[in-house]
Each structure stands twice: as C-alpha cells, then as structure tokens.
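Appendix B, Record 12. Input sequence as logged:
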Amino acid sequence: MITVMSGTKKILLLAIFVFMVACMTGCGDDTQDSSGGRTYSVYYVNNEETGIFSKSYQTATEDGQELLDELMGQLAVISEKKEYKAPLSGDFAILGYTLESGQLAINFDEHYKEMDSIKEILVRAAIVRTLSQVRDVSYISFAVNNEPLMDNGGAVVGNMSADMFIDNEGNEINTYEKVNLHLYFANETGDRLVEENQRNVVYNSNISIEKLVVEKLIEGPLSEGSYPTINPDTRIVSVTVKDRICYVNLDEVFLNQPYNVTSDVTIYSITNSLVELPNVSKVQISINGETSVFYKESVSLTTLFERNLDLITNAASADN
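Logged structural output:
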C-alpha cells in the first residue's frame, strides 16, 4: 500500500535531515571526514615497480608522534589482493627513528641497501611523501646502520622533503643528474675564501641547482684546507632566481655562527658560489623572509651582494 506523506511530515523530515548534515559537517574542514578525523595520502609502490600511487587514509589522531607511528604502520600494511607493495614491508627493518625540531631521522638495517636503485627511489619517495604530511615533520633523513644513506652515485642523500619527488602518479619519480660545482669555503684562519671544485655531484633534478649549491655549502667542505662557513643546523626556507638575482631565504639559525670566520667570508661564501652559476649575477640573503637584519651586527642583508674576488686565496679541489 502506498501512503501519501503530509506536508507537515515532509517539512519535519527535511528539517531532521538538514540538522544531521549540519552536525556532520559544521565542525569540519577540507581535510576532515564526517567523524571529525583527517584524511591523509599513504603512498605505495605499484607491482611493476615503476611508480608510486596514493590511497586515502582517515584517522582522528592529532598528536604528531602518534600520527607518525600510525602512518608508519600503514606503510607496512600488505595488500590482501597483492594490488601493490607496501614500502615498509620489504626484507629490511627499521632500527629506530627520532623526530626532533622538525627533523625526522629514520635508521634502517643493512638489508635496506639490497634493493635495486629504482625500487629504492620509489620506496624512499613513498615514505617521504607520506610522512611529510605530519605537521611536526619538515625534513626527513635516512640512515643505514647509523650511516647516512648514499644514492647510487655515491652522494649522501641528505635531508628530503615531499617536493623533492615528482608527483606524477605512477610515472618517473626522480631523475638524477651530475654537475660540477665551484664552491667557496673558509681558509684555516677564517678570513679568506678557498675555492673547492666538487666534481660529478649527483643530485635530484627536481631540485634547483641554486638550492643544491646552498645545501652543499651548509654540509661543509670535502677537501683538506677548506673549512665550513655556515652553521650546519641552518635550514633552507627557499631559494629562487628572478632577473639574475638569487634570493636565498634561510631560517634564524644562520645568524648563530659557531665557526671562527669573518662575516664577509660567510656572506661571500654564499655569494661567490652562487654567482658561479651562469644565471646568477647577484645574491639577496634573507632570514625567514626578512632582509631588515644585520648579520653579526655588521652586514646589512638589505644589500644585493655581488662577486668578491678579493677574498679568494689558493684553490682546493674535491672529487665526489
């Protein structure tokens, strides 16, 4: 038997429906599901081992450490239908990981190095893209038995972030290239610059060469007779180039100088190294986007710095 609903009942049911929808969505945002949780992308390696793809994962966990543990667990979950490969389900094991000041350091056992280079890049990309979504994680580094991970070119992989990996849903994740860098570090007394030629540096071509130069300066020199010029804990906020001016944006740690070097040596270590690139003629340094800052109370960062040859002493070389 078909019954016809009265107008009053229709209005009442409509009001109840609207109220239920408001309860489900009123306190949410674009990353929250109807239960108040958030949606994250967990990345997996396809069966062909040619790319990575993501699956949505919802959780109500908000604590950074708990969320990190939870996503780590998801990265190890094996598909029941063998549709894909979980990045942390291989023959290697995680010996431990720490999260401190935005830096997530993951230590694997020696079996991690047994993966072929393509699969290792895919596994690394899936892990980094997944865990970088945790609010407290800014950079991720890998180690094997407490030694920094090296790529197939023999270079230290170093700190990684999600934007280091091309997000093209299943196609090529990383392209590596080799480049020769002319970097400038301090001499023993810290008052002059020494040129260091780092040959065949292998790097991810999805990173700008300008950012690579700054990263290598922060890592420090490779050869004897050269000494570091920048606080090794300095973080790069951004490096961009426009109209042949390279804008280097660093965090406030840069202002804390642990080494016995002059302010000019530090500033022109960065400037001279970047000006070696064909597309850079001047350098602007800022601290968290601010240029109204003095470095060591003597050098105004409002200045557009140009190459300074007067500080350069004998050259050094280093093969990478």
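The first strand starts at residue 38 and ends at 46.
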